[in-house]
Write a structure and sequence with these properties.
CATH topology: Rossmann fold
Number of domains: 1
Radius of gyration: 17 Å
CATH class: Alpha Beta
Helix content: 40-55%
Oligomer: single chain
Distance between the termini: 42 Å
Number of strands: 7
CATH superfamily: NAD(P)-binding Rossmann-like Domain
Number of helices: 6
Strand content: 5-15%
Length: about 240
């Protein structure tokens, strides 16, 4: 995209963590940003952290419900008349050996991490066709690297990577760019972590924001369709 100022982005799960970090970066370069979350309380807290009096739209949506995502897209189009960038970021992780993982937690991850990226794309694809926009999913290195206790999380993130790569092939004929970002350890509240100085070695949410900006500024002829990103040096324990 030659000029990102006043382009419109939608970020699911944008009230904290990576989504919040990306929102901050996009607002800084003059984009209009809608962030979604499941509760107004979390969205209002994000609004205070972003300190963006203009160009920010709060949208309550649960990505597991396609009607919520359809309503979110309508709200964005009603507000700004266009949609140029979508970051399907909302995700959850529950980690336990497969014989101990509950059906409830399995379905929570499938519905949020995998069904959610489909619902978000399905709801936004017509708008992205009109804008010749960009759809980005937030996967994980767990999408290619399996580990003990990760059956549910691995299954969803492997699925997100495969879904995104196939969607890229389906949608490029409409000049829609599709990429997946696969981070390693990120300093967020994920998995009940409380970010602090102990997380300084990790990727920071704003680093993913810079990566998204770089993708958007890439020459249209070039598509980094799958991006792995990891801390430069792992934690020394």
């Amino acid at each position: 995209m030659e000029n990102l100022e006043n382009k419109v982005a939608y970020i699911t799960g944008g009230s904290k963590g990576i989504g919040l970090g990306v929102a901050k970066k996009l607002l800084q370069i003059g984009m209009k940003v809608a962030i979604s979350g499941r509760s107004w309380e979390s969205l209002e807290k994000a609004k205070l952290l972003l300190n963006a009096p203009v160009n920010l739209l709060l949208v309550r949506s649960d990505v597991t419900r396609i009607k919520d995502e359809q309503a979110a897209i309508r709200s964005i189009l009603d507000e700004w008349g266009q949609l140029d960038v979508v970051l399907a970021n909302a995700g959850v992780g529950v980690f336990a050996p497969v014989d101990e993982l509950s059906e409830t937690d399995w379905h929570l991850m499938i519905n949020t991490n995998l069904n959610g990226v489909f619902n978000t794309l399905k709801a936004s694809v017509d708008a992205l066709k009109r804008s010749k926009g960009y759809y980005i999913t937030l996967a994980s290195l767990a999408g290619t690297n399996f580990f003990a206790g990760g059956t549910g999380y691995n299954a969803t993130k492997f699925g997100v990577v495969g879904f995104t790569q196939a969607a890229m092939l389906d949608l490029r004929k409409y000049d829609i760019k599709v990429s997946t970002i696969m981070p390693g350890s990120v300093a967020t509240h994920f998995n009940n972590n409380l970010p602090s100085e102990k997380d300084n070695w990790k990727i920071q949410p704003e680093d993913i924001g810079e990566l998204v900006v770089d993708l958007l500024k890439m020459n249209p002829r070039t598509l980094p369709s799958k991006i792995e990103v990891r801390p430069t040096r792992p934690d020394k324990k």
